[in-house]
Amino acid sequence: MSTSTSSTAAQHHIMGVYNRAPLAFERGRGARLFSTDGDEYLDCVAGIATDGLGHAHPVLVEALKTQGEKLWHVSNIYRIPEQEELADRLCAHSFADVVFFTNSGTEAIECALKTARKYHTANGQPERIEIFGFDGSFHGRSYAAVNASGNPSYVEGFGPRLPGYSQLTFGDHDALKAAIANPTTAAIIVEPVQGEGGARSIPEHCLVSLRALCDEHGVLLIYDEVQCGMGRTGKLFAYEWAAQDGGVGGEPHIMAVAKALGGGFPVGACLATTEAAKGMTVGVHGSTFGGNPLAMAVGKAAFDTINTDEILDNVKRVAGYFVQQLNGLKDRFPDIIVDIRGKGLLIGIKLIPNNREFMVLARDEKLLVAGGGDNCVRLLPPLNLTVEEASEAIAKLEQACEAARAAQNVVA
Ligand SMILES: *Cc1c(COP(=O)(O)O)cnc(C)c1O
Question: Is 273's pLDDT higher than 50?
Fold first, then answer.
């Protein structure tokens, strides 16, 4: 049957790089996904933190339809007013002065890394090329992004590593200080809340000292907020938790954003201060699709909807509920759950049983959760999830914990 989704034969022309669940969806609304088999799921993956407003949000659907009938694509050799408007919004609500638009998180990271090196070249210090990241980090899948990431398996077998990329161990302050003081260092790249690595949040005071240390040595600080940005932590950008009024706090010089920026439409952005972007002059970088009118129209609608007290307060409220309830589950299932971590609605549940197997148990309860490093499952629900939906998710997780316990007892 050509509509069969469980058959492996149906996937035989798809490059085999994904470990896919035997499940496909035909429509969604809010936090609900409806499978081709007719089942209804509660979606706490949201396209990996991408469908920030859930599925088929009416404001986004309207923006897409309206722009779809006007203009989809023109080249960046012309001015694109929708792009200028979204850039105005991003800069008005962040540390940044300028924006480069992309179609993905990886491309936003690529731009951030190029911007950092070009800055030092523009300053007459082309020897400053070293980029330091952290273990367990994820920055995307291009050559530069995998070299910047802290997951060695992503670079293996793809030829030599690119020069100028190294990873530091979380919490090794001496190594971090030495890296920043190194006269060939260009930038430090870090996720304020690690996503794929297992929802590890960096303490706010660490971001503040990191920025101060970078400034002291002329090193640029790049934040990867591809996953933790756009409202995910209860502020528009995660670094705002570490920002200081009237002075420099934990802000970056350069930042990559994507995922929820387009609410499910592919949009990414590299944000920077004027100073940090001084090397990015005419002709040094570009993109065919990046910042096209269709993407920008949806991006503007997503931005205006997410950047409201209604959504940001909801994230804090629902996140508070989740953390309280999940810690209750942890107390009742110490044989299953060992830690609850993360920030806002980027929640990690560190497990004793295998996280991939636990995802299947959750799916049996019609709950979708994402995997993560350090044997975590992640909850990344839409930012407009209600407390009622959150409580439904908790009930399903409890059932999954019961099932995991039963499975462990069978093995033992
Ligand atoms: C998803 C992600 C990326 C890569 O984004 P793509 O859109 O998949 O290219 C980069 N950094 C972080 C933190 C991410 O979560």
Answer: yes
